[in-house]
Structure prediction request, 312 residues.
Amino acid sequence: MSVPSPYAAALATLPVLRGEAMVRGARTAYWQYGDEDAATSVVFVHGFRGDHHGLEPIVAGLAPSIRAGRLRVVIPDLPGFGESQPFQDGRHDIAGYAAWLRAFVAEAGAGGSPVLGHSFGSIVVAAAAADGLGASRLMLVNPIAAPALEGPNGVLTRLAVLYYRVAAALPERLGFALLRNRLIVRVMSIAMATRRDPALRRFVHDQHDRYFSAFGDRAVVLEAFKASVSHDVREFADKIAAPTLLIAADRDQITPLPKQHTLARLFAEPRLAVVHGVGHLIHYEAPQFAAGEIASFLGLESHAEPERMAEG
Prediction:
């Protein structure tokens, strides 16, 4: 039995449309929250091994603006994950995903609109923006500000590298089973969660149990993982002219906060917002904080809860 989402009530008030778009020869599934003719459209890009569900708590925090017709949010599943097909040609690397994002934004009628990326999605968004995405504004949640192997959990990252190498070396069926092993997924989830709220932790673990293995191709996962630990946003920041909001956490297990401050200084027009008491799961553990910062950055009314709500 799934764990009830604490954000379900807000999401239930929104018009939601599931759509599909043919992008680079493959079907991309996406979800639209809000009306087609909303004043502002934003495209959200989720992180590694996730799908659109992971960013829905932030959508819930933006519900007042969406209901009022001021905002439309579009969230695709990354190719090879969730309900989106893998690329028909080309690798699932940063260049491939960046090219896909540029094409998807145009296909979704969101050219020139703000774009948000979480974690691995922050690298994809930054790479696309550096190569002609044309987004008016960027929003990076838990941005990867330094190589993952240099982060505070570098040892865990090295173990993850070993895990994916073993999954690649095993025969197809055994490697696929290892990647989807529920015990390993739960260990990953426990390592990432920082809030002590038991109900919230159950929700986070349930989300990872349900969606973290939503892929159908071992090669896609292995290619995307290699991309996720081989690149970071710093590579692209100095090529981005658009105003950029970075939403960071002081307990991020992937990128320590001082690295986020260093990253922010590389952008032409940066704004850094820091939430306290959470780590790399801002989208689950402090979505109202993120929504408030996003609303302010986009010139909408603020939906932020007091920062203390992200603590504990």
User: Anything to note?
Assistant: The two ends are 27 Å apart (CA to CA). Confidence is low (pLDDT under 50) at residues 304-312. The CA atoms of residues 26 and 88 lie 6 Å apart.
